[in-house]
Write a structure and sequence with these properties.
This protein is mainly alpha-helical. The chain folds into three domains: 25 residues, no CATH class; 90 residues, Orthogonal Bundle (Recoverin, domain 1); 121 residues. Helix content is 46%, strand content 4%. The strands form two sheets. The protein has a three-stranded antiparallel beta sheet with strand order 1-3-2. The protein has a two-stranded antiparallel ribbon with strand order 4-5. Helix 4 packs across helix 5, helix 4 runs antiparallel to helix 8 and helix 10 crosses helix 14.
Length: 332
């Protein structure tokens, strides 16, 4: 049997070289296939020598992936960090920061439940004393450019075309990144209210399947959503919480974006777009036939966020000057 010459730079034989090995000059096969031993499963799946397969989730690229997903959730991260920093020191404990990142960053499960050693190393670079300077951290995340990062393996789908840039055409958003329109149910016509009721009932049923009762849902809400001293939860926080619960249903198109918008529109918001954290689980666990009655009720909106009136001095206001019992409770 003639030995075929192979280029050392190539990983295997080309077609002509293989043909010379197997066939004679008269095109008759000179190899007895019965004498060849079958290749084991381990050998068949082993990569060729001289080649290394790079995993997208390798430690080499994990830091860049964390930056990418944190950048997509930057607004939510900053809101939670600022809300918990009443002194505006821009410092946060390491454990609290990791909880906020894990809760508020929209990321694949491989990152969420996988090894976070690279994230810890990245966060520790912004350590000051025993805390993390989250302002410097968020600024670094904001400046990160995924397209310019040479450590990332780019597929054809991640490269933007020159035509798209030239005409300033916006890139398509996912169903989780789009802007959600939330209506004020007190200012819409009856047919829109009926649509809100139907969508509220639909999403309620999906959420109820996740929790065994109202108390479990209420505990989960207060664990995942950070409310201020007045019990305010922003519509963005509520939206992100709901999207996480119905993520699989939205991917499989059992729940649509309009369903979520109708669900969010069923809650009563104050001027600052915040609702009462205690009312969320109660409305979700309201019986379907009682939803129209609940939406027809007119209640006082929640007080404004604490950051709005924190600079208002109440030293010179006496109890005799306060006539509203609800206002008295706020000053006490």
């Amino acid at each position: 049997m003639e030995s075929a010459k192979t280029d050392p730079k190539q990983s295997g034989l080309n077609l002509d070289e293989f043909t010379n090995l197997v066939f004679n000059c008269d095109d008759t096969m000179k190899v007895n296939l019965k004498d060849l031993h079958p290749m084991s499963r381990r050998q068949s799946t082993k990569p060729p020598s001289g080649h290394s397969l790079k995993s997208v989730g390798s430690a080499f690229q994990q830091e860049a992936q964390w930056k990418f997903y944190m950048q997509k959730s930057l607004k939510n991260l900053c809101n939670d960090l600022l809300r918990g920093d009443e002194d505006k020191s821009y410092l946060v404990g390491h454990e609290d920061l990791m909880k906020i990142i894990n809760r508020r960053t929209q990321m694949p499960e491989s990152l969420k439940y996988g090894d976070k050693s690279k994230l810890v190393e990245y966060v520790d670079r912004f350590q000051e004393g025993d805390k993390i300077n989250y302002r410097n951290l968020m600024e670094d995340v904001q400046m990160y450019d995924y397209m310019a990062d040479t450590s990332q393996v780019k597929s054809a789908g991640t490269v933007r075309s020159g035509l798209t840039d030239a005409i300033a055409k916006p890139e398509p958003k996912s169903i989780f990144d789009e802007d959600y329109i939330v209506l004020d149910q007190k200012k819409v016509p009856q047919n829109v209210i009926e649509s809100i009721e139907n969508k509220m009932i639909k999403v309620n049923r999906k959420i109820k399947r996740v929790f065994k009762d109202e108390n479990e849902l209420d505990s989960k809400i207060k664990e995942c959503v950070t409310a201020d001293a007045n019990g305010n939860v922003s519509v963005d926080q509520l939206r992100d919480f709901v999207l996480e619960l119905v993520e699989d249903d939205m991917i499989n198109k059992r729940v649509t974006k309009r369903d979520v918008e109708g669900f969010l529109s069923a809650f009563s918001y104050n001027t600052y777009g915040a609702t009462n954290v205690d009312s969320i689980s109660k409305l979700i666990y309201t019986r379907d036939d009682q939803i129209p009655n609940k939406l027809a009720e007119r209640k006082w909106a929640n007080p404004p966020p604490c950051d709005v009136n924190k600079d208002i001095s109440t030293k010179d206001i006496g109890e005799a000057d306060v006539h509203n019992s609800r206002t008295k409770d706020l000053f006490s």
